[in-house]
NeuD/PglB/VioB family sugar acetyltransferase (Roseomonas nitratireducens), 213 residues
Amino acid sequence: MTMERPAILVLGAGGHGKAVLDLLLAHRGWRAAGVVDAAPRVAAVLGVPVLGDESALATLREGGIAAAHPAIGANAARRAAADRLQAAGFALPALVHPAAILGTGARVSEGAAVMARAVLGADARIGRLCIVNTGAIVEHDGVLEDAAHVGPGAVLAGFVRIGPGALVGAGAVIRPGVTVGAGAVVAAGAAVVEDVPPGATVAGVPARPVVPG
């Protein structure tokens, strides 16, 4: 007898929500139970029904859905959504697309999402609520701290550390051993060759601080 896959609720009907649903539709271990959104604008996403706004969370949990995922791209908003899901009693399992590649010893923490064609090198560590987006590479011994986001096609060489809540834009490349500080932003296409201070924004080749104004 074939066991039914466990259900997982997706919070977020936007672009990242669609990407997470695509992951779940390809996944053999989970099935998408539905979507909730702070302000629903559509009836379904990729054929998965939108079940209402967050006021439905308690009822859905009582109805037997035990797991959920905060499918929100913005790091601070994703953290806040995860807090609301856990307060409602949902577990936040890690989600790894079946087309991702995980090296020996790579670890993915709760609430994180590793998307299609992403590569995690040996002993890479992906923190809670992180996103490793489509085609991104986190090489050996890389560390993403909680709620960091590595954009599509970005390449983090060995021993790179990305601080909590930091964002590495699409197509950026980071030299081995570099640390990107908490809340920092690496612009799309940047080539980072030295440490980035917490809260800073860097862009260009080689990457340099962006001065506001």
